[in-house]
Amino acid sequence: MHSAIESSHLSPLPPTAATGLAAAGLHPFESAKLEMVGAVVRSTIVLQPTGELNHENGQTFCQVLEQALELAAEGVIVDLLWVNGMDAAGIAALVAGAEKAAVLGKVISFQAMNYQTRVAMEREWEQRRQQRFGAWSDRFAVHLEPFLNPTRKR
Q: Phi and psi (nearest 5°) for 128?
């Protein structure tokens, strides 16, 4: 089977997605779709927010991110290089995007995320997980570990 790249081209986003991105102050770039002999066309959408990601535009960004996830065949890359700051609403939008990607079975990648944003995002993710599922403790450890111990008296 020959795996050479036959062609590549840019595919524009639908007008509604592009309008939503512009309203949120975002610059959409859909990555080049590579057509390979004997392979399916793959697509990734790259979002590049600029400035602040906060309570003023966080909800709009969340909607655009979710729409991009639905449109992309593979997933979305969120390039945070040009984001100057982020409040709780911005963090919530990123976590909501990660949750949506998981539900859709798509990949989401956050690039150029600073340490403070990563820590805040992990904290938000953990809080949401605990709200939905409760605390995850090693419930099986008490019963499972003695079972696995070969020196245990039976």
A: -65, -40
Q: Within its chain, how far is the Cα of 101 from the centroid?
A: 6
pTM, full prediction: 0.65
Mean pLDDT of successive 10-residue stretches along the chain, which has 154 residues? 28 46 49 35 82 95 94 94 96 97 96 95 92 68 58 60
Q: What is the DSSP string of 51-108?
A: EEESTTTHHHHHHHHHHHHHH-SSEEEEE-TTEEEE-HHHHHHHHHHHHHHHHHT-EE
Residue type, 104: L
Nearest C-alpha neighbor of 101 from the set 117, 84, 125: 125
Residue 40: alpha-carbon gap to chain centroid: 22
Helical (H) or strand (E) element with 20: helix 15-23
